[in-house]
């Protein structure tokens, strides 16, 4: 959602299929993000507990992201992700 002052709010759910530390499967992330000016934003994501499948069963984690529109008109992103597995 873009507000009249140009700030943004985003919320979402994503299903990721891939490999983490040599373990393959899928999991679901929820995210919340915001931007205080057009062309830039930041946010956080969390692994939905119990959503891991295959070898990613028991995956837990959280992360953060920033996005910015570069001078060449392309989007640039930086992400961090900390994860662990339930015992």
From TrEMBL:
Name of the featured protein: DUF3224 domain-containing protein
Source organism of the structure: Nonomuraea antimicrobica
């Amino acid at each position: 959602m873009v507000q009249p002052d140009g700030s943004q709010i985003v919320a979402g759910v994503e299903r990721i299929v891939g490999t983490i530390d040599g373990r393959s499967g899928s999991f679901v992330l929820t995210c919340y993000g915001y931007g205080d000016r057009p062309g830039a934003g930041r946010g956080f994501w969390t692994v939905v507990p119990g959503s891991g499948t295959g070898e990613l069963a028991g995956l837990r984690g959280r992360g953060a992201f920033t996005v910015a529109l570069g001078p060449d008109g392309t989007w640039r992103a930086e992400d961090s992700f900390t994860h662990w597995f339930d015992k």
